[in-house]
Design goal:
Number of domains of chain B: 5
Radius of gyration of chain A: 20 Å
Mean pLDDT of chain B: 91
Low-confidence stretches of chain B: none
Shape of chain A: globular
Number of helices of chain B: 25
Distance between the termini of chain B: 68 Å
Order of helices and strands of chain A: EEHEEEHHHEEHH
Number of domains of chain A: 2
Largest sheet of chain A: 5 strands, mixed
CATH topology of the largest domain in chain B: Rossmann fold
Strand order of the largest sheet of chain B: 12-11-15-13-14
Number of strands of chain B: 19
Mean pLDDT of chain A: 81
Oligomer: heterodimer
Low-confidence stretches of chain A: 178-184
Strand content of chain B: 5-15%
CATH architecture of the largest domain in chain A: Roll
Chain lengths: 229, 620
Amino acid sequence: MINFTLNGLDVAVEKGFTLLEAAKFYGIELPTLCYNEALSPYGACRLCLVEVGIPGRSRLVSSCTYPAGEGLYVRTHSNRVIETRKLLIEMYLATCPGSKTIQDLASKYHVTRVRFKQKHEECILCGLCIRMCREQMQAKAIGFVERGGFRRISTPFEKKSEECRLCGGCMYICPACQARCQGPQEKSAVCNACLNLSPPCLERFDEMMCYMDPCVACEQNSRGEKSER
Amino acid sequence: MSFLQARLRSPEQFAAMQQKLRLRRESNERYVAICGDTGCAAWGSKNIRAVFQEKLDNLGVKEIAIRFTGCLGLCEYGPIVVVFPGEIFYQRVKEDDVEEILRETFLKGKVIQRLLYEDPLSDKKYVRASEIPFYRGQKRLLLGKHWKIDPVRIEDYLAIGGYSAAVEAFSGLDREQIIEEVKKSRLRGRGGAGFPAGLKWQECYETPADKKYIICNADEGDPGAFMDRSILEGNPHSILEGLLVGGYAVGAEEGLIYVRAEYPTAVEKLKLAISQAEELGLLGDNILDTGFHFKVSLSIGAGAFVCGETSALVASVEGRVGEPRQKPPHLAENGLWGKPTVINNAETLANVPLIFRLGSEGYGRIGTENSRGTKIFSLVGKVNNTGLVEVPLGMTLREIIFDIGGGIKEGKKFKAVQTGGPSGGCLPESLLDLPTDYEDLNASGSMMGSGGMIVMDEDTCMVDVARYFLRFLKDESCGKCFSCREGIGRMLELIDDICEGTGSPGHLEFLQEVARAVKDSTMCGLGQTSVNPVLSTIRYFEDEYRAHIEESRCPAGVCKDLIRFEIDKELCNGCGACLKSCPAEAIEGERKKPHGILDWKCTRCGICLETCAQGAVLKK
């Protein structure tokens, strides 16, 4: 067992636990966007930040990728963590306002204003779809392309992928398009919002539609027609 | 060179051969060193070598050797030719000068005054290289060897004592002893972070594993920095020797040099150096019959700045996308192919043989208490003597810029110096007496980095400088962490506003808030230090930011949206020079009558200002 201090409590977890898993185990909630229990941790969204080290010599690390270590001094809700996390959420809102997951996070963590210029991107490049495709579906059909501001998700050589089995796992797990469901409205029991769903990949894959043809989510094929499924 | 062809089978054979080479070298010290590095090559040093060779062949002279060397330092005055014995330093040599040098200097022993270096400050001429103020102030333990060796000839390196540290290490010393020696020397990583090299080795040594790796990080990517390249190209064997010692100390049998594809000459020289060392039996199986196996291979990077980060480097070597990962686990536990790995910067490894030659105590006497040894800085920008300078750590910025660098170009005023590459900070005049050691630079909001040193004069806008470095980092961020990918872009957005005069009073505080969040929340060093150019310029040049925001004024006259060109009607004689040169056709006026600038057409390129002989064009 690994013994360390979590928010002032002496805790013990099994070897191999990450700080996020340890926090969850002890009932402490941390926000995440790029984390899923069934996939390997990646550490891209930076929302699960925790402060590691004694005050004055501490640093912020992503708890999903940081292994619990003997004698660590960990704080999950220090001022520094909260302030940084709020600014990150503000930046997420300014970048991808269309995601319900992000809007929910904003409300939950009291982010009430956006001081950045508003962008309307769809993908937050959390990489969940890529890991889903690789680790759970064993397809490895998609991956990151380019770097920095040009980074995007695509198929090899941006061609329609032979590896893709149209399973739809990538869309299922996406925090940007999966969470667009608004749920049934008060006036009717049927929502049907999904019928009008257009996943973010549409614009980017334009000619070839998306790597799923026909697309599982929008049920359109590359000629833009609704399929008969 | 018959004794070079045989494979060496024992440390004794090695010592005997080295002795022979040394004696041969001492008996004939007549040679000409021609700088073959990038700066001088661009000035045409390759042709100069060819002419030297041709003339020597014509004369039938055999005993004068030509050494086409690595960077000799004073790039500004290339091509550089140094005549030995006598260390006579000729600068800006042309092909036509070659014959004169041979005739006068080599045959008659006369110095050609015309080709000597003249100090721009004192107008004094210097004959010997070591007397020139640029070199006098330096301590060239690493770069000094460049004068003596041709990087393509292993015998040159052997003759000055090369590989003896490595042979001493694995023929006589325990691994613990070597690590202890390096720890005692307090050598710190020259790549930027300054982690003690001995401790790094020890961690890797103490991790049990069936296989270990040692990697030389030669992925130098800072704009305007070429320290590692100069060693790779000028003295590749010193890096191999450092790798050998390090590999033996940590118990690795495989070494790897990660060098960027943009350094084709370095790759070529390294390949040659590796094959030469293999032929001599200094690399390979059972080296000198000591039972130590060590092979070195090259890994060519595809030119991503972020691959200088150690975990991204490992990913790149393994063939994955060059992206950093969270540490721990550290590379000493889980590195290349999951095995314990040690990664040292090229300059760090080049320092290792030096520690053995000087002894850890001798080495430890150079520098300051916490920062020992020398450091190579790439001194560039608005300074008279641009080039590579090697100084003891702890030398003040003033000494480097003014004593060695010869002060600011064109007699302008010093404004700031940017240390540590794109992720470093800008330091103002008030900090010129700051010693260049790791702690002091960090405390001032900059860093040692890999050793870039960009000097800026009064015509530089610090907001614009921050913008430049942010642009670089935005492109070079791997894009994994949202905070780095998006955060750098957002900081750039705010700075763009400020430069365009659309910044609001809250911009500055908000920018600092974003910068602090990006620094705290990003995984690797690139993102964490990406805010340094912003925070340090705000810290030391807040007035300039305020002038942009509150008065819509760029004090240095750089930000195009905040400046305007006008023609003084009284001074203008209507010569029409500006009208002809204006690429935007924004100037009109009749001949011999005062001209005027159409503000809406003007692109603020400033060509009219440079063209006007009357000084009638004004920048406002």
